[in-house]
Amino acid sequence: MKSPWLGSLAAALLALAAQPALAQRDPARSMRLDDPPSLPEDLRKLDRFSRCVAQRQANPSAALLAMDFRAEGYESGLRRLAQGNRGCAPLGRLAFGGVLFAGGMAEALLQRSGASMDVAARTALDPARPPLQARDENELMGICTVRAAPALVQGLLATEVASPEEAAAIRALMPQVGQCLTAGINLRVNRPALRAALALATYRIVQHNAAATPAARN
Fold first, then answer.
1. What confidence tens digit (pLDDT) does each residue in 175-191 have?
2. Of 134, 161, 174, 214, which sits 20 to 30 A from 167 (CA to CA)?
3. Who has greater pLDDT, 109 or 1?
4. Which residues make Cβ contacts (< 8 Å) with residue 4, sequence separation at least 6?
5. Could you tell me the pTM of the whole model?
6. Cβ count near 45 (within 10 Å)
7. What is the distance between the alpha carbons of residues 162 and 210, in angstroms, rounded to a whole number?
């Protein structure tokens, strides 16, 4: 299942990689923006980078995650956020993937607000609110899974990235993930990307639930 969201992020990362000035600012920190991580240590480095960015710049990070990832300004916003926070990158090489970067920021902001410790209550369906529309199949799966199995998602987000505990948490979630797929859709996503999708879905639901209802604004 290929999402336009993933495609737009890939395009943004390729554009970032084409800017050599980034590497010139700090030769000790090499960000390979066209080379998504796959090794456990690379995944953990990117997770720490993402969380550092969200902690340093919580408001800009939240503003980016609030955007529709299909919007024209999303890619340029992603570039600015990455470029402006190279101090968060570890010394040496940092492999970078946009979906994982966004997912790590979402996890950090959920932790900052306390929502990561109370996923069930913070993501519960409120019939008084307008429905939350999924923007693609990945997001539909994520929203459905979070709402159907909030305790399991909370358990996943409490694990260390690329750890045996993470693998076990995802295995426990897979039956529910399968039930949340649209009929005829086969999920083809790796473990890090699935975690990111669930983190982003959790964050979006929490923000949706926290927004004032139309009646409250009047």
1. 999 999 988 877 777 99
2. 134
3. 109
4. 70, 136
5. 0.83
6. 20
7. 31
